[in-house]
Amino acid sequence: MTDQSFHDALRSLLVWDTTLPAFDPGSAPEAPLPLFRSWFLDAVEAGQTEPHTMQLATADADGRPDVRTVMLHEADERGWHFASHATSAKGRQLAARPDAALGFYWPAQGRQVRIRGRVAPGTPDEAYADLHARSAGALAAALVGRQSEPLESLTELADASRTAWERARATPDAPAPTWTLYVLVPTEVEFFQGDELRRHVRLHYSRTEDGAWAQRLLWP
Ligand SMILES: Cc1cc2nc3c(=O)[nH]c(=O)nc-3n(C[C@H](O)[C@H](O)[C@H](O)COP(=O)(O)O)c2cc1C
């Protein structure tokens, strides 16, 4: 690969090479959750690949940002749920600084959703129930553990994974002690609808002191 081929490929790409839906913020609900759920279903219907994956941004104890992809497990009145190991880098960052942000990008409809808030760990029972309602693969992955630790070799991973798969199949109720369900409790949620003429619509919700939601538009 040459520098030129990289730059040519980069410059040839477009975003939203499709008809984008209109978004009327005047008809948006009072709270962000119903709008999130409705946009999520729109993304599924539009054939958006993996709309249930999201970026999770955290900061370490020194305030340095970090980001990675995780799966959305639920979005309800409590907040946005995801799961991971408490002992992972993100788990340690969240324990030190629970402030975090989530980002969804659904290019099929030129939509982005950004969420900021505080992350609270759920109970061990909730983590157990959430994990054991999922696939054997999810359990095997959780049983491997040691997430974010340095790995000596891929052989070491293959051995640990084989053992974890055998255990997940033989003992489907096996506990994965560090596996934790987290809930991001939102204080701000922003909906971005891309527009062909670049008049993108940004609707920002922020939680007020009395627990209601205030809405405002933002310049794109
Ligand atoms: C599509 C996708 C989904 C993922 N889902 C999760 C998840 O739900 N939980 C998780 O712990 N890691 C998930 N990962 C792996 C994380 O992105 C990350 O590599 C891992 O959690 C370690 O992150 P950390 O070192 O910052 O803690 C996913 C990765 C991808 C690409």
UniProtKB/TrEMBL annotation:
Xref: Pfam families: PNP_phzG_C, PNPOx_N
Entries under SUPFAM superfamilies matching the protein: FMN-binding split barrel
Record key words, sorted: Flavoprotein, FMN, Oxidoreductase
Keyword Ubl conjugation: no
Cofactor(s) listed: FMN
Domain Pyridoxine 5'-phosphate oxidase dimerisation C-terminal: 179-220
Record's keyword annotation contains Protein biosynthesis: no
Pyridoxamine 5'-phosphate oxidase N-terminal domain boundaries: 42-156
PANTHER family: PYRIDOXINE-5'-PHOSPHATE OXIDASE, PYRIDOXINE-5-PHOSPHATE OXIDASE
Family statement drawn from the similarity comment of this UniProt entry: Belongs to the pyridoxamine 5'-phosphate oxidase family.
Name of the molecule in the record: Pyridoxal 5'-phosphate synthase
The species this protein was found in: Streptomyces coeruleoprunus
